[in-house]
């Protein structure tokens, strides 16, 4: 009994939630073991009987303790000529600790091949080997007993090792470049010319994944011009960009006549070959990248999407709000290896921070506001179609003024059942409409320097939102302030969208563009704007970055101020956290481990309606309130409760089993103490 407790305490188990749970419970059990040992020496016969029951329970508890801690070895590509070996846990055997496992791996291969050791930012240690030694290392690892080895996919290893063998020569590339019109060739910047050559070496089958604003369209047109003699060219793009692409083709290559360019929907064209793609892969999760890559290089990532998911996605079963069970592929795995694979075969990726040093900065500020009860009721009424109370005779929505007194709000609060609805249960559309009064007040105070002459004092601003009724509310406010604006949403025709863009760029009197995020958040040039406002949070991190870079791009001469409105105690807060998580997953694939974006950088958090503003980390601020559980000085039960909430369901089940056994032990111990006291009195 004593040796089991000491062995548990001496185990080298660190850096995992399962381990931390076990250490908490082991500390309690070690005290119990000592107390039972002392009582047993006191000679209580009744305690001996109860102790036999306790002993059976305690001896069965190692199955709860060790089921999640098992040794496995994972090998994955970490650079074009290296791969790394890490140790982890799977089912089958007790995990002795990362350091001990890695030492055993290194002892196994030390006499066969050279290696080095590296440590990640999270503190995990791994061994790094040359990719040419992979087969030899794998043979050594398979000699170890009680381990499971996860191989590098054969297609991945072969593609990385053979990268560049099927590319065209420099002579062939130069011959293709001579087909470019001189005006187009001279307009290419050095990094853009490098991107064009990258595509030409691969016969046009490439993925131009440059950051927004670096001229992907120009590079794509240049590659297309080099292959225009081989057949018709198919350009697939959002409807709002069809006229933009047509004009760019006519501008850069005079041989493209208007009669040669046909605009239509996806059902009107049928082509057998697609030479290249101009896109940013993986909008929200690595799983989304499969079809783009499979079109360019069939079966590079697997025979089908689900084979790809088994290797490069962290699959787990989830349950929807309607109770449906589904497979969730949102999280990625082996993302560094996936980045190396794509970069070595068909993807080229450059960042603005590396190329456009003269580009002005981009400053983000989060505007946090608390939704008032009256504004929430107004939003609910507008959605439910209560036109008598929420619309004027001109059918334009009337948004409640933020200047209405609090007494009026409290008087109406008890008469409307909609006010009883928790803000966390508001729909995204309700939240967006309820933000408009606060937004209107903030816009008047911050972006209009002279309330008497709003038109001339207002700065060029882009306002993004999702829902039409939210856009309608912004339009009403701007009309009341007599500020000229243009609007782009899903109902606008392609020609109308282009005219709106030109009017905003060229007409100094047009100060604001009201834009639907999905309708006008990509491919448009609004570099004349100084401010970007998100009245509603985008649904993916890619939508956020794409919309921001409509203003922050080549041609911008001023710093771009980005304002993101987030309503307190609503679904906006968990959505912001999801945006950060998805951004890290996607950027790990396209940027690589070194340049992966770990969080959306925010310069300032401003609390609307409060006297002071603070500079803080929004990710911490937006977490649900846990009271004292957030403090290191909080009582142990509260800290343990917050800790348990971070565990998955399997970990919680194991914890509850052990916790039940501990409660039983305490109960038995208390009975034994009572009997011991009675015997002492006698």
Automatic annotation (TrEMBL):
Stated name of the protein: Zinc finger Ran-binding domain-containing protein 3
CDD domains found in the cross-reference section: SF2_C_SNF
PANTHER family: DNA ANNEALING HELICASE AND ENDONUCLEASE ZRANB3 FAMILY MEMBER (PTHR45766), SNF2 DOMAIN-CONTAINING PROTEIN _ HELICASE DOMAIN-CONTAINING PROTEIN _ HNH ENDONUCLEASE DOMAIN-CONTAINING PROTEIN (PTHR45766:SF5)
SMART domains, A to Z: DEXDc, HELICc
GO biological process: DNA repair; replication fork processing
Organism (species): Triticum urartu
Molecular-function GO term, any one: hydrolase activity
Protein keywords: Hydrolase
This protein's GO CC annotations: nuclear replication fork
Pfam families registered for this protein in UniProt: Helicase_C, SNF2-rel_dom
PROSITE patterns (UniProt xref): HELICASE_CTER (PS51194)
Lineage of origin: Eukaryota, Viridiplantae, Streptophyta, Embryophyta, Tracheophyta
């Amino acid at each position: 009994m004593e040796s089991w407790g000491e062995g548990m305490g001496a185990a080298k188990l660190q850096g995992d939630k399962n381990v931390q749970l076990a250490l908490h419970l082991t500390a309690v059990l070690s005290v119990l073991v000592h107390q039972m040992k002392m009582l047993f020496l006191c000679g209580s016969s009744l305690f001996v009987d109860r102790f036999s029951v306790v002993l059976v329970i305690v001896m069965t508890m190692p199955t709860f303790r060790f089921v999640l801690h098992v040794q496995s070895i994972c090998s994955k590509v970490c650079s074009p000529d290296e791969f790394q070996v890490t140790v982890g846990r799977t089912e089958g055997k007790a995990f002795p600790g990362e350091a001990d496992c890695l030492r055993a791996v290194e002892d196994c291969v030390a006499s066969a091949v050279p290696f080095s050791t590296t440590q990640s930012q999270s503190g995990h240690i791994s061994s790094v080997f040359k990719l040419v030694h992979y087969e030899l290392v794998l043979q050594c690892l398979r000699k170890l007993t009680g381990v499971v080895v996860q191989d590098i996919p054969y297609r991945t290893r072969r593609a990385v090792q053979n990268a560049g063998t099927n590319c065209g020569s420099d002579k062939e590339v130069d011959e293709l470049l001579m087909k470019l019109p001189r005006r187009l060739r001279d307009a290419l910047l050095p990094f853009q010319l490098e991107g064009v050559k990258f595509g030409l070496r691969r016969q046009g089958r490439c993925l131009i994944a440059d950051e927004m604003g670096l001229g992907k369209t120009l590079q794509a047109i240049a590659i297309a011009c080099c292959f225009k003699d081989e057949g018709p060219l198919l350009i697939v793009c959002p409807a709002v960009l069809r006229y933009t692409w047509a004009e760019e083709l006519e501008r850069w290559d005079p041989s493209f006549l208007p009669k040669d360019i046909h605009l239509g929907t996806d059902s009107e064209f049928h082509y057998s070959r697609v030479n290249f793609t101009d896109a940013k892969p993986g909008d929200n999760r690595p799983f989304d990248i499969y079809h783009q890559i499979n079109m360019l290089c069939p079966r590079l990532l697997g025979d089908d999407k689900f084979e790809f998911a088994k290797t490069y996605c962290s699959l787990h079963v989830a349950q929807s709000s309607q109770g449906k069970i589904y497979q969730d592929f949102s999280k990625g795995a082996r993302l560094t290896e996936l980045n190396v694979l794509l970069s070595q075969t068909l993807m080229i990726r450059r960042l603005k921070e590396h190329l456009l040093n003269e580009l002005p900065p981009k400053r983000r500020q989060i505007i946090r506001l608390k939704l008032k009860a009256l504004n929430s009721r107004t939003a609910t009424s507008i959605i439910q179609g209560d036109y008598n109370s929420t619309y004027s005779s001109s059918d334009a929505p009337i948004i409640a003024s933020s200047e209405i007194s609090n007494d009026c709000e409290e008087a109406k609060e008890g008469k409307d059942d909609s006010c009883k609805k928790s803000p966390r249960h508001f729909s995204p559309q309700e939240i967006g409409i309820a933000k408009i009064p606060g937004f209107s007040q903030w816009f008047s105070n911050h972006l209009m320097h002279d309330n008497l002459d709003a038109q001339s004092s207002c700065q060029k601003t882009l306002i993004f939102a999702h829902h039409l009724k939210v856009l309608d509310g912004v339009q009403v406010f701007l009309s009341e302030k007599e500020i000229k604006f243009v609007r782009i949403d899903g109902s606008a025709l392609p020609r109308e969208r282009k005219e709106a863009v030109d009017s905003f760029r060229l007409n100094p009197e047009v100060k604001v563009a009201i834009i639907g995020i999905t309708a006008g958040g990509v491919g448009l040039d609004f570099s004349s704007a100084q401010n970007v406002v998100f009245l509603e949070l985008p649904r993916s991190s890619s939508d956020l970055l794409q919309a921001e870079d409509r203003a922050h791009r080549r041609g911008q001469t001023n710093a771009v101020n980005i304002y993101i409105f987030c309503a307190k105690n609503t679904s906006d807060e968990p959505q912001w956290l999801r945006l950060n998580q998805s951004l890290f997953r996607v950027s790990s694939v396209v940027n690589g481990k070194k340049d992966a974006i770990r969080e959306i950088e925010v310069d300032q958090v401003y609390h609307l309606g409060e006297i002071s503003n603070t500079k803080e980390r929004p990710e911490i601020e937006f977490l649900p309130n846990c009271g004292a559980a957030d403090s290191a000085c909080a009582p142990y039960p509260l800290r343990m409760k917050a800790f348990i909430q971070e565990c998955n369901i399997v970990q919680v089940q194991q914890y509850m089993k052990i916790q039940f056994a501990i409660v039983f032990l305490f109960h038995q111990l208390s009975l034994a103490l009572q009997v011991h006291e009675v015997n002492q009195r006698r």
